[in-house]
């Protein structure tokens, strides 16, 4: 027990404050976790038990088979695979195109460089929601409905990526380029062997940001996919909830399956994730 | 001369992949959307649409349907942004002190970043279902129409779902902001006899005002783009009470049968673009400034 002397006040004990703080922390945790906890519990019940009143909050005999059923019968396995392919491809594509463009904007001299960079920045002001009508037609003209190119190609370039990578590259010491030139490195060798290895934390943060954005997409995949074999997990889950509420336990199990990959990413890449999420947000 | 030319050619080759995608899926469709707004749908489906110039813009933007969408969108932002930031900040303040086990609480508080809009919406959709949902049961509903079919409570329910889904992100953002407040400032105030709530309101909060402003702008931008939760929870209903701008664009552009009207939807999309442009200009201006500060410090 500690006591602190306050000027003009009587000595106060610290522990009641500390206890109050823990109480608030636990209360807030309860608010945050309650929907998740109930979802997991319901995912382990039989359909009739979910409707049981009063509600069951502790499953006595958890039905783990619900997850297997959701994965195979309710197609969650296919949806998850589609989302994984889409998100990984978008991340790789956006990182690659952004690296190349940012490199050119930093280290290569060519006419209209500033104008073209301004063009990249301008795309930050054009949200995907605004352009869905013509983009939907473009995909239709290309015959890309229900295909991966429709889910991937529009997103393999990122104005934010170009901007962030250029910022990262500009912070590298100028002498590096001169030294690399003396060593006989061309532009591409300099990019691959010096610039990219030195920029890995920034690239990682952007990659996590990009992956999360792709994984969580809703409006665009809803527009360009209609078949079970091409739906992403977000759309598949929403359709399951809308159409098959008689097997509501599978809806809950599917929800857990859909969220699980990102929970794992959160735990493994916590540091990069925090950086990635606050990219472009609070700096310094 | 030859070397210079080769260098320039390399530059173009490197920027072409990104700029090609931007051209095809950002710049072209933006121009095309603005242009679509000049064409009015025919009275009978199947006939070609005809050029009407700006008249469709005037007509749509002054229609009560559009103004209603806009009002509901603003209401949605007002319901989600201040409450979300206040809650996220409160959590960040709680988790800021070094206490035993604080890391566990930090992980819990940021955990909803793992929930997508679809996951969060399906959770609340199920839990608010009057037949099977636990929340509906706690709210005293036994069957019948649920809260999502209630004209008064549907939009607040969508807002609560949104606040919960974004809570992890807001918490992370606010925690990072809190870290930018130098400890010496609050310690000095403590020495002067300021209590903890006084320190928070007089020192910490004013110092956080740039970040709070930034978070509000970002929150407003996200709010104007909120689509998934509407689609999953209410589909704009009951009786249009959750019909926000983006959802009306979607329904108008891609509505079933003969109700699809791309021209009308394009006008609303351009209006949304203009609103978001103003908001992201504010955000971008702010971001640039901070980045330049960071540069200057190095």
Commentary on this structure:
- The complex is a heterodimer of chains A (284) and B (298).
- By secondary structure, chain A is mostly helical.
- Helix content of chain A is 68%, strand content 1%.
- Chain A folds into 2 domains: 17-63, no CATH class; 69-277, MetI-like fold.
- In chain A, α11 (200-215) crosses α15.
- The two termini of chain A are 36 Å apart.
- Chain B has helices spanning 2-36, 55-61, 64-94, 102-109, 117-127, 134-138, 154-179, 183-191, 196-224, 228-233, 245-254, 262-297, and strands at residues 39-40, 50-51.
- Chain B is globular, with a radius of gyration of 24 Å.
- The chains are: A mainly alpha (284), B mainly alpha (298).
CATH topology of the largest domain in chain A: MetI-like fold
Principal-axis shape of chain A equals: globular
Per DSSP, what share of the residues of chain B sits in E-state strands of 2 or more residues?
under 5%
- Kindly report the spatial arrangement of strands forming the biggest sheet of chain B: 1-2
Give a quick rundown of the structure.
The complex is a heterodimer of chains A (284) and B (298). Chain A is mainly alpha-helical and 284 residues long.
Name some characteristics of this structure.
heterodimer; A: 284 residues; mainly alpha; MetI-like fold; 2 domains; globular; disordered N terminus; B: 298 residues; 12 helices; disordered C terminus
Write the layout of secondary structure elements.
The complex is a heterodimer of chains A (284) and B (298).
Chain A: E1 3-4, E2 12-13, H1 15-43, H2 47-50, H3 65-72, H4 76-107, H5 113-122, H6 132-142, H7 148-152, H8 159-170, H9 175-182, H10 187-198, H11 200-215, H12 219-224, H13 233-243, H14 248-268, H15 270-277
Antiparallel strand pairs in A: 1-2
Chain B: H1 2-36, E1 39-40, E2 50-51, H2 55-61, H3 64-94, H4 102-109, H5 117-127, H6 134-138, H7 154-179, H8 183-191, H9 196-224, H10 228-233, H11 245-254, H12 262-297
Antiparallel strand pairs in B: 1-2
Helix pairs in contact in B: 1-12, 2-12, 3-7, 3-9, 5-7, 7-9, 8-9, 9-12, 11-12
